[in-house]
């Protein structure tokens, strides 16, 4: 299977996901969190650092469960629009609307 290149938005979402998981993990060790989620610590490290920008859904679900995060909250956090760019009623951001 050929993977398509990541877009800048994919990379940014992956970075937001990693930051969210690091904050939620707090003082808890990466090793304990990874083992409880049935992942390798290296996988969790890569996700938290943004090196794996698009982890599989079951992986995110397992980590979120261990950290007590709802998937709705994770989705809302990682899909926030850019700062200073308000969505328009058509679903496009203001920058796209002004350019058209």
Counting helices, strands and paired strands, the structural category is mainly alpha
Into which percent range does the helicity of residues fall? 55-70%
Mean pLDDT metric: 84
Order of helices and strands: HHHHHH
Q: What does the largest sheet look like?
A: none
Instruction: From the alpha carbons, calculate the radius of gyration and give it in angstroms.
Output: 16 Å
Q: What percent strand?
A: under 5%
Query: How many beta-strand segments?
Result: 0
Low-confidence stretches: 84-100
Distance between the termini: 36 Å
Which descriptor suits the 3D outline? Answer: globular
**How many helices in DSSP terms?**
6
Question: Would you write up a description of this structure?
Answer:
Residues 84-100 have low confidence and may be disordered. The protein contains six helices and no strands. The protein has helices at residues 8-25, 30-36, 41-49, 57-67, 71-78, 94-99. With 100 residues, the chain is mainly alpha-helical. α1 (8-25) packs across α3.
Q: How would you sum up this structure in a few lines?
A:
With 100 residues, the chain is mainly α.
Overview features:
single chain; mainly alpha; 100 residues
What's the structural blueprint in terms of helices and strands?
Blueprint: H1 8-25, H2 30-36, H3 41-49, H4 57-67, H5 71-78, H6 94-99
């Amino acid at each position: 299977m050929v993977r398509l290149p990541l877009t800048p938005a994919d990379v940014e979402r992956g970075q937001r996901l990693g930051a969210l998981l690091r904050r939620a993990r707090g003082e808890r060790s990466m090793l304990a969190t990874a083992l409880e989620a049935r992942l390798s610590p290296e996988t969790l490290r890569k996700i938290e650092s943004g090196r794996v920008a698009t982890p599989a859904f079951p992986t995110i679900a397992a980590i979120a469960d261990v950290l007590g995060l709802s998937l709705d909250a994770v989705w809302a956090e990682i899909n926030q629009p850019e700062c200073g760019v308000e969505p328009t009623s058509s679903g496009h951001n203001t920058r796209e609307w002004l350019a058209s």
